[in-house]
Amino acid sequence: MAVSLADRYRDRLPITDATPTISLGEGSTPLLAAPRLSERLGFEVLLKWEGANPTGSFKDRGMTVAVAKAVEEGAQAVVCASTGNTAASAAAYAARAGLSAVILQPLGAVALGKLAQARAAAARLLAVRGSFDDALAAALRLADLGMHVLVNSLNPHRLQGQKTAAFELVEELGGAPDVLAIPYGGGGNVCAYALGFEEVGTGVPRLVAGEAAERSATVASAIRITAPAHRADAERAVEASGGEVVSLPDEGILEAWRELATLEGVFCEPSSAAALAAVTRAGLEPGTRVVCVVTGHGLKDPETATAQTPPPVEIDPDPGAIAAALR
Description:
Layout: H1 5-8, E1 31-33, H2 35-41, E2 44-49, H3 59-72, E3 77-81, H4 85-97, E4 100-106, H5 112-120, E5 124-128, H6 132-144, E6 149-150, H7 156-162, H8 164-173, E7 179-183, H9 188-200, E8 206-212, H10 231-240, E9 244-248, H11 250-264, H12 274-279, E10 289-294, H13 302-308, H14 319-326
Parallel strand pairs: 2-10, 3-4, 3-6, 4-5, 7-8, 7-10, 8-9
Antiparallel strand pairs: 1-2
């Protein structure tokens, strides 16, 4: 039976004997070599494949802790605002804990795969006429009424759980990488990795954070956040590491998304490719060891995959037709 993330790092998390274990087997995600990308770029590329988490994104690392602490505190329900991944994770972990979940999503701005996950887990989905920031403000007001526990990354237990990805990298590599590249939406995950590296004592590697140039309208829906909740702390951590925030056009994000799939077989949602897109523009020296955090699975956003790839070719079921189609 798999060891829960909370049990694995119990001494480094806000877990007590009174904290229940609310786990779906999160964490311990693969660190994949990317030899074809490494050859093309001239430095070593490794992929932290967070799409292997139970609901398909890194959010599960923080949600296992946040929901467990909510249960410990006697909560009956959780609430979050979400562009999709937080919704899927909150719905799943709330269901595991026997809690109800309320999801406030910006109207028309959430990918189909993420909506399907939250709906399957019987979360109450409410589409807010406005942006993610409007949805978050509403979620905060609901939480202030005392009936629901907020499980967005403003809940400090979320970042505590997410920092464990840095622990795993240090364990596998024997230290921190030279560069950690990461998508930058709300900034919580940037802060969580920095916290993790600081706690484990390696120091924070150079952080390269990839954000969408058009935050309010990017194809990368998971980072379609105009006012990052953790902007000050995230950008302070990036600057202190000697890193940079790289602003990315959608075509650059989609190019990296295609390369991850066609060169390395890693099918991620577009926002996850922002890490790779950012390091290709960061002027790294040959021989640099880079870990790109690939935050979410491609099945989260089937619409983009469908729109960005050619459709199947219809043929008759015989060798001649197949040969003709392949020419």
